[in-house]
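Tutorial handout. Part one gives the primary structure; part two gives the three-dimensional structure as tokens.
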Amino acid sequence: MSAQPPLNQPAPASPWYLDDDGYISTASANAKLRFGFIVADVPYEARFYARGQQAALLVSADIAPMPYSAESPAARNALYSLINGARNSPWGSCGLSPQQRITVAGEVPIARPIDPIALVSAAIRFVLQSGSFTHRVRQEALMHVSAV
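Part two.
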């Protein structure tokens, strides 16, 4: 539990600040900000960055493994079509990792001031914008994969 200021002293305006490298920091730690979360069994990772006056949250998700050709050639072809169709979507892009996992990623701009609410809101915007695609691809992939 963190120490609270005495009741007769005002609390600091905000424990968050941007350091000279563009990373959001707190008064107690100077570290890059990165966090993960899970929505509908899909793990997401979010990384904050700032360059000059622009700031954004880079959000990515590991949707599901790509089925092997032996498991279902038709499903694999259908998923390739979905992935290729979403490479330059308004919310980001879709692709395959070197480990043959289907991924989505996107960059969500964040307006200043940058605080925890802005960061979480940006992550939620990405999930909402890419959610129906992510759900459809995950369902299709998992129907044909023997082990996740």
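Part three, for discussion. Helices lie at 73-85, 116-142. The beta strands are 16-18, 24-26, 34-39, 42-51, 54-65, 93-96, 101-109.
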